[in-house]
Amino acid sequence: MTHNVFVYGTLKRNEPNHHWLSNSKNGVSKFIAVGKTDKKYPLIIATKYNIPFILHKPGLGHHVEGEIYEVDNKMLGNLDILEDHPNYYIREIDNIEIKKDDVDNTETMKCWIYFLKSFKEELLTKPMLENYSSAGSHGLPYLESNNESTLDDLDEHVVC
């Protein structure tokens, strides 16, 4: 069985964690298209590792741009482990708009998206992005952790 997954942060092409999607040991993934969320969401950068998150607050922020991948069950399971679903991120299906060659022609595709659902309201005061790049003008490049847990750092931003 295959699934469509929308990625908006470090898993995109040319981003620090894209190797997760391209490593066949994690399962199969195939790039489908560039798209954007049909609803507006806050895409923010937080934690000392500068991790991008979409906060589950529909209607606030921007139509977030990202990439759609078709993945197999094994890859989806490994992405769940990477994103610590359902402990921190919640994976939900939402509509993603794909632009066709014609500017006025769009297609909508249902995709899994990883959201930070239970978060402290202070995160809504952070700048909200439309498109994430670790090397973006925001000046907050993603920092990989070596021995420290990024999830422990996330605890200060999550409501349990």
UniProtKB/TrEMBL annotation:
<dbReference type="InterPro" id="IPR009288">
    <property type="entry name" value="AIG2-like_dom"/>
</dbReference>
<dbReference type="Pfam" id="PF06094">
    <property type="entry name" value="GGACT"/>
</dbReference>
<feature type="active site" description="Proton acceptor">
    <location>
        <position position="83"/>
    </location>
</feature>
<dbReference type="GO" id="GO:0061929">
    <property type="term" value="F:gamma-glutamylaminecyclotransferase activity"/>
</dbReference>
<dbReference type="InterPro" id="IPR036568">
    <property type="entry name" value="GGCT-like_sf"/>
</dbReference>
<feature type="domain" description="Gamma-glutamylcyclotransferase AIG2-like">
    <location>
        <begin position="5"/>
        <end position="132"/>
    </location>
</feature>
<dbReference type="InterPro" id="IPR013024">
    <property type="entry name" value="GGCT-like"/>
</dbReference>
<comment type="similarity">
    <text>Belongs to the gamma-glutamylcyclotransferase family.</text>
</comment>
<dbReference type="GO" id="GO:0005829">
    <property type="term" value="C:cytosol"/>
</dbReference>
<protein>
    <recommendedName>
        <fullName>Gamma-glutamylcyclotransferase family protein</fullName>
    </recommendedName>
</protein>
<dbReference type="InterPro" id="IPR039126">
    <property type="entry name" value="GGACT"/>
</dbReference>
